[in-house]
Design brief:
This protein is an alpha+beta fold. It contains six helices and eleven strands. It comes from Idiomarina loihiensis (strain ATCC BAA-735 / DSM 15497 / L2-TR).
Length: 225
């Protein structure tokens, strides 16, 4: 199935250059695992960055370092890369409510960061991911017929569909679709006959905008921490 919602080229450039937060790196990197087009774009950006940085490095090294110093520097770089081994065994499978999901490579390599599942309102479940930043990052599972109350965002929210389908007032989102929202967007995510597993990160709490759900606003930071 064709992925129709992608990170912008600016976000892909930040990913390739290492300028994203840990949470956004995880979400964008997982999308890249699932998206051939974005994977190709990132490869091209990385190649360009590598050529630019290598030219700069060679120019600086040739004017300030001896050949033996250059050789020592390169040996140190390759040695540090060789020592950077995976500290945790990746777990590619995730089970919940009788369903088994296959996790994309980047998410599987961070499976040790996934916390315990807890049930939220209605047919929603959440498992937090422990990352070294201030963002709120969660796996969200929506059973068939689930609905999150209408809300907007005090900051930015990035959501990636891992498996399944959900929709809001704007569109329908399936495996691999990446959605980036800001305070200008109000929506009501819901599932119909299929369930949906998503990976989402927030840099500020949700703000509920409709009916009785607005009573949740004082607790929204706790609700999605």
């Amino acid at each position: 199935m064709m992925i129709k919602s992608h990170p912008g080229e600016g976000l892909l450039y930040q990913y390739a250059s290492g300028d994203l937060s840990a949470a956004m790196t995880l979400v964008v990197g997982t999308h890249i695992d699932m998206c051939k087009a974005c994977r190709q774009t990132v490869c091209e950006i990385e190649q360009k960055l590598c050529e630019e940085n290598l030219d700069t490095l060679v120019s600086v090294a040739s004017t300030t370092m001896s050949k033996s110093q250059c050789d020592q520097m390169l040996e140190a770089i390759f040695a540090s890369s060789a020592c950077n081994k995976q500290a945790h065994q990746p777990n590619e499978m995730l089970s919940l409510e009788g369903r088994r999901f296959t996790l994309p490579r980047t998410l599987a390599h961070n499976s040790h960061r996934i916390g315990e599942w807890s049930k939220l309102v209605g047919k929603l479940w959440r498992a937090p991911l422990t990352l070294d930043n201030g963002n709120q990052t969660n796996l969200i599972y929506m059973a068939p017929g689930a609905k999150l109350p209408e809300h907007t965002h005090k900051g930015k929210e990035a959501t990636l569909v891992i498996d399944g389908v959900f929709n809001d007032e704007q569109s329908e989102y399936r495996d691999g679709d990446f959605i980036l929202l800001d305070p200008s967007r109000t929506h009501t995510p819901e599932t119909q006959d299929e369930d949906c597993l998503t990976l989402a990160t927030l840099d500020a709490p949700l703000h509920f905008t409709s009916g009785i759900s607005r009573l949740l606003n004082p607790f929204s930071q706790l609700f999605f921490r």
